[in-house]
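Lab channel / #folding
Pinned by the channel admin:
"Please post every new chain as: sequence first, then the structure tokens as a reply. Keep commentary short and put observations after the output so the thread stays searchable."

First post following the new format, from NK:
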Amino acid sequence: MSKRPVDGTVLVRAPGPVKGESGVAGDAIGDRRHHGGGDQAVYAFAREDLDDWEVKLGRSLSDGSFGENLTTVGIDPNEAPIGERWRVGRQLLLQVTAPRVPCRTFAHWIGETGWIRRFTEAGRPGAYLKVLEPGPVRAGDPITVVHRPSHGVSITMALYALTTKPGLLGELLAAGADLPDAMRENIEAKLK
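Reply from TO:
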């Protein structure tokens, strides 16, 4: 599950809607039934959050340690509203779609008792993104927010609504067309 930093350029493209495919060239997805596809083409996690987890876990965490394809610095994927768009480098355009909800595969990889609950409670899950415009990316490329929706449905809010605070589910619908179809269907089914 751990990813390793890459020297040079990597192509990022839309993998299509089918689960199990990554948008990052050369990337492998461990749980192909639940991860990947168009709305989970790229996973971004903040370096600042990895640094915080290093202290809490008492061990070093390199970029990619949580399975992220994109380790950000100075941009917080957790506070990004669903639908926010990021230009990475000159060509790549990504759209924030959903929080990472921790699973058993992730917990097994980390090897910490109670990891799923601990990671969820921290409210810093990182964000999945879909590819709107493909392009190459390399370490150090700038990330610029080029569109920020005003609905206020953040990645952290979505994590809590989908896990420990289902009373927030209805509020996620404020994201409107920015919500991925599968997430909207899941929310509507739970609210019935």
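NK: The chain has one domain: 10-191.
TO: also worth noting, Strands lie at 10-12, 42-46, 70-72, 85-88, 92-99, 127-133, 135-137, 143-147.
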